[in-house]
Amino acid sequence: MSNVTESLSSGGLMKALRLDSYDASTLLEVEVAKPSPQQGQVLVKIKASGVNPIDERAP
């Protein structure tokens, strides 16, 4: 894995999960351009996220 600080500041690509509908079969792992914060904004790196079991049953 590359240096995290360097990769955050250099732009480039990042992995993301994209869900195009409520159907879990449409969940895709994609590479997208890393966002660049503008003046007055910050970029937050999420290392982990929790999912409530009831969320899986949402329509």
Distance between the first and last residues' Cα: 37 Å
The order of strands across the largest sheet is: 1-2
Biggest sheet character = 2 strands, antiparallel
* Structural class by helix and strand composition: alpha+beta
- Total of DSSP H or I helical runs spanning 4+ residues: 1
The helix-strand sequence is HEE
Estimate percent helicity. 10-25%
Shape: extended
Average pLDDT metric: 78
Radius of gyration: 15 Å
Spans where pLDDT lies below 50 across 5 or more residues: 1-8
**Strand tally, please?**
2
- Strand share of the residues? 15-25%
Number of domains: 1
What does this structure look like?
Strand 1 (13-19) and strand 2 form a beta hairpin. This protein has one helix at residues 4-9; strands spanning 13-19, 27-33. The longest helix is centred in the N-terminal third of the chain and has 6 residues, at 4-9. The chain has one domain (4-57). The chain is of the alpha+beta class and 59 residues long. Strands 1-2 form a two-stranded antiparallel sheet. The model is unreliable at 1-8 (pLDDT under 50). It is 10% helix and 24% strand. This is NADPH2:quinone reductase. It comes from Stutzerimonas marianensis. InterPro entries: GroES-like_sf.
Keyword list:
alpha+beta, disordered N terminus, two-stranded antiparallel ribbon, NADPH2:quinone reductase, 59 residues, GroES-like_sf
Short description:
By secondary structure, the chain is an alpha+beta fold. Helix content is 10%, strand content 24%. The protein has a two-stranded antiparallel sheet with strand order 1-2.
